[in-house]
């Protein structure tokens, strides 16, 4: 196989991978799969959450708050492309929300935002929301501890 044949084979495989991802995630999910947003550890986060799902994927969410609202969010996961897509959307959906509004979010909200998602991977959306909620819960615990320590 020469270089030209090899490059053509690679291009064909890449095209098939992209077609499969478009079929699985739809246009919105595919775009986020190709260009994830809100990824990475936030070193100066006010809080973080970490959950390992039943599938074995672990996700971490990092949040910053101002006036009891999420102002910034980011995530990392050791999981599959579906975990990355859901983590990206869950982080985006958290921004601007109050603490109470975060606890109203469900994995179904993430799936609705994406629009199309493989049924066997839907657990990733629930993992992402649970992780955001874990980060908010940890934030609330920190706030209570800070208030208690200040009163002592």
Going by helix content, strand content and strand pairing, the class is alpha+beta
Strand arrangement within the widest β-sheet reads: 1-2-3
Helices and strands, in order, run as HEEEHHHH
> Could you estimate the helical fraction of the residues in percent?
55-70%
Q: What is the class in the CATH system? A: Alpha Beta
Number of strands: 3
Strand content: 15-25%
What is the oligomeric state here? single chain
**Unreliable residue stretches:** none
Shape: elongated
Instruction: Return the CATH architecture.
Output: Alpha-Beta Complex
| Number of domain units | 1
| Biggest sheet details | 3 strands, antiparallel
- Mean pLDDT score, rounded? 94
Characteristics:
5 helices, single chain, 3 strands, 152 residues, elongated, 3-stranded antiparallel β-sheet, Sufe protein. Chain: A, alpha+beta
Please describe what this structure looks like.
It is a single chain. This protein is α+β, with helices and mostly antiparallel strands and 152 residues long. The protein has one domain (32-144): Sufe protein. Chain: A (Alpha-Beta Complex), CATH 3.90.1010. The protein has helices at residues 3-34, 81-94, 99-104, 107-114, 123-151, and strands spanning 47-52, 58-66, 69-77. A three-stranded antiparallel sheet has the order 1-2-3. A hairpin with a 2-residue loop joins β2 and β3 (69-77). The radius of gyration is 18 Å and the shape is elongated. The chain starts with a helix and ends with a helix. The mean pLDDT is 94.
